Amino acid sequence: MCAIVGYVGGRSALEVVVAGLERLTGRVYDSAGVAILSDGGLATAKKAGPLERLAEELRRRPLPSGPTGVGHIRRATLGGADDTNAHPQLDNAGRVAVVHDGMIDNHAALRAELAGRGHAFASDTDTEVVAHLLAESYSSCGDLTEAMRQVHGRLEGAYAVVAVAADEPDTLVAACRDALLVVGVGEGEYFVASDAAAFADQTRSVIEPGRDRVVEVRRDAVLVLDPDGVPVAVRPYELGLPAAGPG
Q: CA triplet 150, 154, 158: central angle to 5 degrees?
């Protein structure tokens, strides 16, 4: 089982994301990585092995500071446990980054389809397929949330994916189907994770989008959509209390 952490707000996303990953390292994993949006670009670092190896890489090659980012620890299920297959996975242009928990059942067919349109793949992961699909949809529609909704409609399996794009530096987008994804609500900041333990020391206010949803997270708002793009009302609940569910 992999773990996802994302952040958008007023603090250093790198510090928040790495701290969130540290709180999830009790599970078995074999690689870790981060992607940070900064100065109109997308900076990444990822390493096979324990989180300490990623920390060493970040000390050796610091990433720029930015208010939006994602991180991941991976237990290899498709592709070996190496730097190339670690998340985040990027599109060919390096402008979209994706982290993923779960399995994309139709990844082979989608990979073949994308290769036929000229996409070149660097990893063996199903996650990279999502990054290429998202970048392609984004280039057509120009809206990252709509692009994620389109991609979500093409994916099969049980999964949670979270993505960022260099051209929308204040936005995280996510999709989930039959996999846990939670949003932590802070003061002028939001957290996204596959487990609320990643941010429980930062906020106790949590949103659970639901089993088949697309989510847009900005510094000042969260938008939850059903697969048809219709907004879904959700209410935060406090950790330790029952979820309020859709409103």
A: 115
Domain boundaries, the chain: 3-238
- Token pair belonging to 55: 């920390």
pLDDT tens sequence across 110-135: 999 999 999 999 999 999 999 999 99
Nearest to 152 by CA among 132, 177, 131, 183: 177
Beta-carbon neighbour count of residue 111 at 10 Å?
20
Order of all β-strands in the sheet with 41-48: 41-48, 31-38, 68-74, 3-8, 190-193, 182-185, 205-207, 237-238
Phi, psi for 183 (deg, rounded to 5) = -120, 125
State residue 187 phi and psi, 5-degree precision. Answer: -90, 100
pTM value?
A: 0.94
- Which numeric CATH code is attached to 3-238? 3.60.20.10
Mean pLDDT of the chain: 94
